[in-house]
Every structure is written in C-alpha cells, then in structure tokens.
Amino acid sequence: MHCEFPPERALDPHMLTQHKVFSRAVDLIPPTMPGLPAPSAPPKILKPRGKVSRLNRGGYNLQDKLGWSPSEYEEVRSFVIHLALEHLNVQRSWKAQLTHKLKVVFSEAKSHYPVLDDYKGDWVVSDFLRGYLKNSSTRAN
C-alpha cells in the first residue's frame, strides 16, 4: 500500500495555539495560586547519629559534618562561646544550665548567624556549647 500526503503548509508562530512566550521576570509569578498549598521551606538538617567528638563510639566530628570553611566554623564557634560567657554559668555543666538562658543563647546565635536556623533543634549551637561547657566546668572543679 502506498499513501501520498499533501505537502505541509508553514504556520506563523501566532497561529500555533501551544506557543507561549513567558517573561523572565520572576516578580510576575504569584507566590501562591488559589487552591494550591503554599510552597514549603526546605527541610532542616538533622543532627547526625551519635555524640559530637565521640568518634570511637559512633560519634562525629562537628566541623566535618557541617562542611563549613575552617574560618567560618571558628567564627561561629567563637561567637557561641562569647554568648556562653555572657549568659551562662560556665562553671556548671550543660545539664545544670537554666533553660531560659540557653534559649537566649540559641536565639542570639541564630539572629547573628542565620545559617544556624537551617539545623533542626539548634543542634549545632548545642554541640558547641556542650563541648565548651564540658571543658570549662571540669576546669572549675
């Protein structure tokens, strides 16, 4: 069987019903559309398994897990220690700290370094504090 088709005719772009040119301006896109759920924030980063600095017992190295540059890591760590000296009793262990004072440290650290808000449950600030308080409270005794 042999079929012959008529030649195709060229169409102008305005004649194509599926042809749509979108603007590159992102501001024109509404943030949410009626009836659709609002876009959710990316999930927060969970704390790794184990305890910080307990490498032989299934723990982790905080600096390695964060993946920050050494200068960035040290800057944040130093600021958290500064907050501990300002708000906490550094002669006492982590468990002996007042909850409302720990919340102040967490809040100030996140306001100064917004990247800390990407981590679920303030575990990065908590790890910095636990390490520092363990050492400072041991020296005090």
Model description:
The longest helix is centred in the middle third of the chain and has 18 residues. The chain has four helices and no strands. It is mostly helical. The protein is 39% helix and 0% strand. Helix 2 runs antiparallel to helix 3.
Question: How does the SSE layout of this entry go?
Answer:
Elements: H1 62-66, H2 70-87, H3 99-112, H4 123-140
Low-confidence stretches: none
Largest sheet: none
Q: Got a strand count?
A: 0
Binned, the helix content reads 25-40%
Terminal Cα separation, in Å? Answer: 99 Å
The tally of helices reads 4
Radius of gyration, in Å, reads 28 Å
Mass-distribution shape: elongated
* Nearest-integer average pLDDT: 85
Oligomer: single chain
Order of helices and strands: HHHH
| Structural class based on helices, strands and sheet pairing | mainly alpha
**Proportion of residues in β-strands:** under 5%
